[in-house]
Specification:
The protein has 332 residues and is of the alpha+beta class. It has a single domain, classed as Beta-lactamase (3-Layer(aba) Sandwich), CATH 3.40.710. Helices cover 38% and strands 14% of the residues. It contains 12 helices and 12 strands. The strands form 3 sheets. The protein has an 8-stranded antiparallel sheet, sandwiched between helices. It has a two-stranded antiparallel sheet with strand order 3-4. Strands 5-6 form a two-stranded antiparallel sheet. The longest helix is centred in the first third of the chain and has 31 residues. The chain is globular. The termini are far apart. This is Serine hydrolase. InterPro entries: Beta-lactam-related, Beta-lactam/transpept-like, Diverse_Enzym_Activities, TAT_signal. GO terms for molecular function: hydrolase activity.
């Protein structure tokens, strides 16, 4: 017999609510399920994490060593070096983004440097508009086999005027990293540990160094996928971490202003970060390594992939952009 404290109407309502709860949960999980379904055919994908607000709503490990072991983030390193440039300007170690190489780090310029390299600005370097012949792609082997990587870059012929079109080049960012090490008196590794590690929750491990001891500015940095996600959250949250400003807000604002355009993906490019029409700010590395943030939708994303296979804009990287612009944004 039903107790006097629980009427038939109340009982029925409780029963219906209980029956509805699984359905409501399934409805809430549907967008995340759509993301999982969308990655089933991506055979290069290793890990995918999506954070919405404070909650990680997708954490998928398809292949590779998992979320807690370091992955080579490849050219995502360029975006992190750009953040370190912002900290150096904020601390007065470099005057501003228009400071010239000849004024900031003259000893890096070799005697046989290409005419005009002394006038290259930090903005030319961080936007990959130095004008010098590329040291990525077919030019990468000559770059990393040189006895002095910085000198090698600065003796390449000019293919465009400085500040002109984007010439994607790892060597350009390597020069920027060498500038940062020179003006601060600290290695790029030390700068990353001091200025970025508080946000990622773990230290940075050593990576490739050139013959002069400069850490490679534009490639081969290693982070765990979980640390990559925390960096995405830092970008999403305007450089704030645990209630304090870890990265200069004015630098981030300037970073997200389009300065040039990738000739490959068509994406705009700011100070070291790609900018999508849908509102993402993206660090992109060879093979499909991605750190992405969408401030308006409160979304942060980290993706790792097979570093031994390319991720072209019309291929796998294009697939990843469809994932970001489609099922991932629908999570917001």
């Amino acid at each position: 017999m039903m107790s006097s404290g629980l009427s038939r109407r109340t009982f029925s309502g409780a029963l219906l609510t209980g029956l509805a709860a699984p359905a409501l949960a399934r409805a809430a999980d549907a967008p995340a399920d759509a993301v999982r379904d969308a990655i089933r055919h991506l055979d290069q994908l290793h890990t995918l994490q999506v954070q919405r607000g404070d909650a990680v709503v997708v954490a998928q490990v398809r292949r590779g060593p998992g979320l807690a072991r370091p992955a080579n983030i490849k050219s995502c390193s360029k975006s992190l070096v750009a953040l370190l440039l912002g900290t150096a300007i904020a601390r007065g170690e470099i005057g501003d983004v228009h400071a010239r190489l000849a004024d900031v780090a003259p000893r890096l310029i070799p005697g046989d440097a290409t005419a005009g390299v002394g006038d290259l600005t930090m903005e030319d370097l961080v936007t990959l508009r130095a004008g010098l012949a590329r040291t990525s792609g077919p030019g990468y082997g000559g770059f990393v086999s040189a006895s002095n990587w910085v000198s090698y870059v600065l003796t390449r012929p000019m293919e465009d005027q400085p500040g002109g079109r984007m010439l994607y080049s790892t060597g350009t960012t390597h020069v920027l990293g060498a500038v940062l090490a020179t003006v601060t008196g600290k290695s790029l590794l030390t700068l990353a540990r001091e200025r970025l590690a508080p946000a990622v929750g773990e230290t940075f491990g050593p990576w490739t160094q050139d013959p002069q001891g400069f850490y490679l500015g534009g490639n081969d940095m290693a982070l765990t996928p979980r640390a990559m996600l925390r960096l995405a959250v830092l970008m999403r949250d305007g450089g704030r971490h645990d209630g304090r400003e870890l990265l200069p807000a004015d630098w981030l604002k300037a970073s997200l202003t389009p300065r040039t355009q990738s000739p490959y993906s068509g994406l705009s490019y700011g100070y070291g970060w790609f900018l999508s029409p849908s509102g993402y700010v993206i660090a992109r590395g060879y093979g499909g390594q991605i750190i992405a943030a969408h401030a308006e939708r409160r979304i942060a994303v980290a993706i790792t992939s097979d570093t031994g296979r390319p991720a072209r804009s019309e291929g796998y990287f294009g697939d990843l952009m469809q994932l970001l612009d489609g099922p991932v944004l629908e999570l917001a």
